[in-house]
User: What shape does this take?
Amino acid sequence: MRLSAAIQNRGVKGLLFFAFWTLIGLSFACQFHISTSQAGLDVSWKQAISYALADWYVFAVLSLPVIRLARVYHFEAGKRGRSLAVHAAGSALFSGAYMVLRAWVGTWQSQAGFLQAFQPLLVKTWHFNLLLYWVMVAVACAFDYYRKYRDRELRTAELENRLAQARLQALQMQLNPHFLFNSLHSISALMHKDIEAADRMISRLGELLRAALDSSDAQEVSLRQELDFVKKYLELEQIRFGNRLVVRIEAAPETLDAQVPNLILQPLVENAIRHGIEPHARAGQIKLQASRQGDGLALEVHDNGEGLPQNAAPSEGVGLSNTRARLRTLYGDAHEFEMRGAAGGGLMVRVLIPFRTRNNGGLGAYIHESANADS
Assistant: This one.
């Protein structure tokens, strides 16, 4: 990107343009000197370089209007006949202009008259000039087509990125009402048993919704912020379950600044409560772990419920299916999401995503890759 930006600089472009034509002139000067030496003619290096550079610097000056003309009259469908006629006339003018300018430079180099310098050019260079004109047009058109291709590619990537962002926003908007509905349902059930507890849940729910709204525009937050939100959610659930719900959170210190999808843990914890705690009268435990594994961040939620029936596929509600879709959109193939029976009983849900902090990368590459894969 830095090289591309440098090339777009007008001064750098001018230097590259000058260097290109100088290199061609010097290569022809070498060929001219070697061929004349083999023919027994006494042509010095200074003379060879002087004549060759004079030739190609004139071509360089004349290439500027040729490039401009090629950009206007290109050979797209519906314009080929007109463009062909324009360039046929342009090639003749180009050849004539070269001979006039080169003859004028020749009078300055050899002190010869204009006609004396012009006549050999008319015989020797007319057809070469026509050929060179069409080479310039072909190269200019090729660069123009490549530039347009790159512009379309960038616009396509931008549209894909916007589509992915819109998809993520829609998924997140779907998750928030689902979470609110479940919380209100829990409060409604508690109202018939413990009004004070239900009142505390309403108060905590207000705090929780305020925290969710504060980060609603962010697709990623730090793990520290995500854990704070989950703790508020667990405080809400502990009012309902009391001593039946025991929570352990083990997050390695180096993981706290890692970026994670906003509201990624709440559906996992909610699923663990619903299937691991709620169906049983006994006390249940939920363990949430965060650790770094190489270049990845592993998030695991364990419960000590019944786990999965033998040979049964895990069922996914709105929260888990939404989480799976968000991870796929955010990271493409650069993530893992699995549900399996835990070694000591219960269910374990594991998410592995790239380990990144706010200072070492954004989501653009993952979103772009995912959008390309989906298309």
About this structure: Strands lie at 220-222, 245-251, 259-261, 284-293, 296-303, 336-341, 347-354. Residues 40 and 94 are 34 Å apart (CA to CA).
